[in-house]
Automatic annotation (TrEMBL):
GO biological process, one term: tRNA C3-cytosine methylation
Transmembrane regions listed in the UniProt entry: none
Example of a GO MF term: arginine-tRNA ligase activity
SMART domains (alphabetical): DALR_1
Organism, as annotated: Corvus moneduloides (New Caledonian crow)
Identification of the protein by name: Uncharacterized protein
Amino acid sequence: MGEGRPGVAATLRALNGALGRPAPLWVKESGARNLRHRDFLAPRAALSAAFPGGQVPPEAVSAVPSLRGPAVLPLQVCRQTPAGLAVQVRRPEAFQRLLGPLPGPASPATGARTGCVVLHCPALRGAAALRPRHLRSVLLADHLAQLLRAQGVGVRLVPALTEDRRWDILRQLRICWPSGSGGSSLPDAVSALKAALGQCPCAAACEQGPGTAEGVIFKVHLKSFVEQQGLVGYDPNLDVLLVTEGTLWSLAELQEAVLQCPVTPCCALLQAKGQSSCCSIIHVVNCEEEFQQQQLDVLWRILDPGKHLVCGPVKVTNPSSVQGTCCFLSCQGSLWANEAWTEVIDTLTVAAIRFEMLSTAHRSQVGHISTKGTKSGAFVMYNCARLATLFNTFQRAVERGEHQPHHSPLTSSQNSLCSENVFALQVCKFLIQLSMDFSSYYNRVHILGEPFPHLFDQMFARLQLLGAVRDVFHSALATLHLPPLSQI
């Protein structure tokens, strides 16, 4: 049997294929009463429409339990019932494959990589202070970098942070961004870009004089370039771009980031075929700066293609007052002075901001940062802390001799996890939905039962399940630069 994780969708495809009919006949059972007897059902009405008299050939029925595949759940029995054709899953084996240790992200071999991605966040460029409307694009760029690196993709972050601005907010939000003053080759690159624009048919040099904006060195007719290239999706108001030294400096920094991407065999093959780069460029901006970034993007397209990822606006409502802060400090002074609780509060703050900004559709407005309800970052971190407390409590009970050490239960008891509540729990959902599912399960099921031998298998099975849930929490939170909390 394959070592991949089994899934419901793949199992349904295999079951439909076993009956030899193109139409989907099977459904996943979800009712509590029915789950005691079956996991999948081909309803009688569907069978009557697909087979004469609703009679499935016996050889097809007998072949169902032998279905195999990397993502197919292990099947135990298939039988005719008054409701239709019913299938039961070998649940202990299914749980063992589902709840085994989660593998970390595989690091592909160097030769298997197809290039790298340059993430460009213009909000970090220039001398202006970072405003709340910029935070969302910065957080999204940071999160994208983590996800891409987890897949073995090389990532370059642009621009480098300069020393003439304070970046305390990035440190507080646990955003990892490179700093530096720019490469020594940037002046030469800017000169090369000037020469390239001087040869471009859609660009014209500008002489300083009356009526000319200060610092403008070129006028580039973007609309004519967009029409010639047949580019779609750009603002129809794109027309003439006044190019300054700063504009070319930004492009030179992007170009340098592309040149610094590692050259893999795949990249070398593309370059040998005449393609200048196998590097993707993603500009992450908020919608208020979309037009300006489209101008830069079209200018960059003259040299190399790029992509846009546009964020919606961030609106600040009901900002915290100084009086409210002072009131909190006076009421909770002892907790605030504790370094451990300071770290907890900082983590909850970062979680609230990140979850609110990253869980909202990218073109929708973020109205406020909420720490209430079951869809907030604080709720996710709270459930992560509940898991840590649960396993710490179990470990202390083992040390006191009240419980046996945890062993693998999934081969010793076939009924330990046969409850429909456990089987229906999907540990791969988005973190917020996973938190809601876990919270519901945690409030409904007593995990650490009494220290009686006949209850050990069930308790160990539940711990195995929640251990897998904990691993999912930790892996997902790592992509957000959020440490899992052990207490709240």
